[in-house]
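G., the chain you wanted modeled:
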Amino acid sequence: VTRTWRCKGRYEPGQPGPDAREESYPKLWDQMPVGLLHLLSESACKPVHEFAARALRANQAFCDELDVDAIVMLLGRPYEVTARLGYDLALARYDASNPDFELVAALASCPVEEARRTARGWIDADRTRFAGARDLMVGLVLSPWADTRAYARTLLASVTIASGAALDIISRAIAVMLGFGDDPASEVRAREGGETLLRAFPRPLRGLGLDVLHDLVHHPLAGVQTFAADVLLAHDIRPEDLPEALIVALAVESRHANVRSLGVRLFGSLPDTALLTRINLLLAFATSALADQRGAIRPVLQRLAAYRSFGDAVVPPLLVVLLSKEEHEGVHSFVLNLLKHDLADSLGAVNKDVVLRLLRSKHAPAQELGGILLGRNVDPASLEVAEVARLASHEILSVREASWKFYRENKPRLLADMSAAIKILDASWDDSRRFAFELFRGFSEHDFTPDVLVAVCDSVRADVQAFGRELVTRFFQEGHGHEYLLRLSEHPSADVQLFATNYLEAYAAGSLERLRALEPYFLGVLSRVNRGRVAKARVFAFLKAESEKSPEAAQLVATLMTRQSLTMAIGDKAASIESMVGVARLFPDTPLPIAIKEPPLWTRELRRQRKEVRGGV
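Predicted structure as tokens:
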């Protein structure tokens, strides 16, 4: 015997089923129609409902005897075939002169749209009578169907309900809301139903008990919590007299952003005097990990900013937040905007040390605030020149511009501490270095000491070295020529060493003492491999000329050449040997690592002997 389902005739799966009954043994089912009713009540299988509703409809006598509870059950089932059976039975049972409110409520919330329209028509025919049916009103307000919920809002706005009846409707609706599960459908019902209650019964809700509100606040649905928050915002109990636990549950503990915002708004409705005693909670909201809490508390903070005591209390901890690592994204930006715009009048007490700490911070918002306060709170006279020079390397343009302004307006202070002032030339930003070049080009020769000029040349930056050489050339002082030469010779840069060769003839020639002082310089230039060709040539020429002036100078040059000839490249070694040959000829007693051999004199006898040797070979 086959156990599979088979389609009969031309029926295809998915098409509406036939009106004719198809079950096996229909006579047995007709003998027990209550079994069909039981299937419609308990089954969660659509094909079962299609079979049972069709079979039950065929038992008209049994259906005519069903009570209202059974019809309400059929209307409440989520299968249209079953709900439509209930609708047909309700039409036959309805008595307009003595309407059954429970039946109308079930009809208004059943899955069949036609049935819901019929129920609304019955209610519109006698709104005053139906408005007194409290369970019916609750069923309409919290119906699973949007059209019914919308109708309830319109209905309640058009009828007058006594205060006692209103309180009863509210309490019954709240009981239903508290029974909702945590699912999307219930969320929508709670949100729209709560809005309807708030519109229809604003005055009775103002006296709602705190115990009930406590239960609503702690319900998991956002719609229920929002309803509770809105009730509290308009409640007869003053905000300062509300239990703090209720406010905290909404503003802090709720997992729904819109509810937290309402909770913060409720907290912000406290009198200013009460808020000023809750600085820590205000700061907690302002630095919350949740953007909605920060946004909701800002209007409150703006209002309290009018109190000087508030600014004095919150600015220091907010500055600490900026100086600390950002724990939650967006907090630094929020705090910066708060300080810049809402608490700007309270920043006057931020002292120089704090401003400099902000500027040295690793966090951009702190640096930006430091740049703003630098011009407002810090007296230029209190800054050291070295501190200002460091600010020229700051990432924030406004901070660099402030340092430039200081340099332009405080030339006497720069001249008094030029060794610190020239540090701006090594700024890490091109714009700061360009500013410094232009500024110092406007100074006179009396403004630069040799130490300062050489210190500029000592920079590790090529553009600053070039600028230093420009200054030395422009402001060179003859009386300090030897000092320039000695200091420039100590620089490791090939460009500076080449520049120093310009002063060898004028300030080192003929002085054995100065030659000895320059030995490290000569070794450095000559030791460069494949680099500094021009500088090497000048040094070789200079040393060769000096070696011819005295035995002592010759000895010094010979020592240098002996040492360097062992490591030099071939081209440089030839120049070194040439210098040592010159020393040997002028001062034969000078010890050298070379022996000079004169080439043989080619006489006729030597030529003959060589020919004989070749012939023998």
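Residues 7 and 13 are 8 Å apart (CA to CA).

Shout if anything looks off.
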